[in-house]
Specification:
The two termini are 37 Å apart. This protein is 74% helix and 0% strand. It has one domain. The protein is mainly alpha-helical. The protein contains 5 helices and no strands.
Length: 126
């Protein structure tokens, strides 16, 4: 997750610093692609055929991107607003305050479920 945060931060920051539209458009497309890929990953997880004792883990994994979606859903309107305000000025200047953080807040629960499955498997094999 740290790598994804760094890539997106660098890409978007560079785009807005350049002042040229193409890198900004490219950064927006990258963000959109990342969003679509996250949605597709969750859809694949939900469709995955897993053993009955793995269903709770699968369900928890489908929420691993919840914080990402919350961050994006708040980020996009904020950037749009900052751009509109900048363009409305007599001398259009856009300065986007960019903070983007990838988090997986349900990781402790995911770890707990994995440990439970490992313990169960170990007990079954003993």
């Amino acid at each position: 997750m740290d790598a994804a945060t760094a890539i997106m931060s660098d890409s978007v920051s560079h785009a807005f610093e350049s002042g040229v539209p193409e890198p900004i458009i490219d950064a927006a497309r990258q963000l959109g692609k990342l969003y679509r890929e996250a949605l597709n990953t969750i859809a694949r997880m939900r469709r995955a055929n897993v053993a009955a004792d793995c269903k709770a883990l699968r369900a928890e994994l489908t929420h691993a991107y919840d914080d990402f979606f919350t961050e994006i859903d708040g980020f996009v309107p904020e950037v749009r607003s900052q751009i509109a305000e900048g363009l409305a000025r007599p001398e259009p200047t856009v300065r986007v305050l960019f903070t983007f953080t990838f988090r997986v807040t349900n990781m402790p629960r995911i770890r707990e479920l994995i440990l439970q499955l490992k313990a169960k498997r170990k007990a079954e094999s003993a």
